[in-house]
Amino acid sequence: MFNRHSGWLLLALAIVLAAGAAFAVKVHPKTALAAQPAAPSTTQATTPATTPAAAQPALEVYLFKNPKPAPSLQVTTLDGRHLSLASLRGKVVLLNFWATWCGPCREEIPEFERLQKQYAGQLQVVGMSVDELPPAAVQKVAAQMGINYPVAMAPSAVQARFGGSPVFPSIPVTMVIDRQGNIQQKNHGANSYEVFNAEIRALLELPMNGVHVARIDQLSPDGKVGTIDIPGIAAALKKLTPAQRQQALAALNQQACSCGCEWSLATCRVKDPSCGFSLPEAKQLIASLASGDASGRPSAAKMAP
Fold first, then answer.
1. Spans of the chain, pLDDT less than 50
2. Residue that terminates a domain, selected from 167, 191, 216
């Protein structure tokens, strides 16, 4: 994911170092992982690093157990057309909150362009720019990038309606909306083509080519994860005793993921199942509890805010 403040910082850095032969920009570790096809944000790849002859476990795509209707949305696109979510019923919708200054956001755009062509008539990608630039400036960037789907501006009021507080602290964020208008997944951070393709195919009820659809719970209103249906660790939690499971859930909701997302391990697993940090840390915590360690975490573990 990309913090909006870091976007301006990177812009300033680029200006300062423009005269150099080359420069490197450090990105969020979660973003770097999510950008790799082998670690998609809403699918859990369990393929071991073995020889080609080894069995290849199926991928999983995570959708919500009890999806809720998307908030109403009526906007005017940058090219002057009226667009509403209600008018898109019958299609899968990818509602992508992005910005022109956000590197990971721009990385996803070719994927959206490809998907829009691939599922023409069945899918509608909608870009929602959180830029503070004039709409004309955003439209110029969209044209330069060859964006083939509608783009509209997303002021704070719109962001708040879809979960911002009042704005999204990090982007990109993509709402995956089914043909009935329900939000089936909220993808945080940059995701691969494979992730979105699997989600779209699941919602269009097309052949999944070995990808398994798993239903997971959304976060409770207080932001806590209250069930054991947590991507990547559900099976391990089921092996614990009832008392250990209760203790594990409490610890997973308390201990912060070290990837820098500022979420708890449980929240990170739900919001970003591909995170390469929360999965091993959560497994280690569960293993510690199973072995009799009452704390379930290292003594120096950081707590989630």
1. 9, 11-57, 298-301
2. 216
Query: Nearest-5° angle of CA 243, CA 245, CA 248?
Result: 110
104: domain range? 2-216
pLDDT tens by residue, 53-80: 444 445 678 898 889 999 999 999 999 9
pTM recorded for the entire structure: 0.66
What share of the chain in percent tops pLDDT 70? 74
Displacement of CA 263 from its chain's centroid (Å): 13
pLDDT in tens, 168-179: 888 999 999 999
Residue at which a domain ends, from 190, 216, 242: 216
Contact (CB, 8 A) for 81 and 110:
no
Domain co-membership, 128 together with 272: no
3-state secondary structure of 9: helix
Dihedral of CA atoms 85, 200, 189, 45 in degrees, nearest 10, equals 160
What kind and span of H or E run contains 212?
strand 212-216
Q: What are phi and psi of 96, to 5 degrees?
A: -105, 115
d(Cα 292, Cα 170) in Å, to the nearest integer? 38
Both 138 and 222 in a single domain? no
Say how far apart CA 282 and CA 280 lie, in whole Å: 5
Two tokens at 281?
A: 């840390």
Nearest to 183 by CA among 70, 305, 38, 303: 70
* Number of domains within the chain: 2
Q: No. of H helices and E strands in the chain?
A: 10, 12
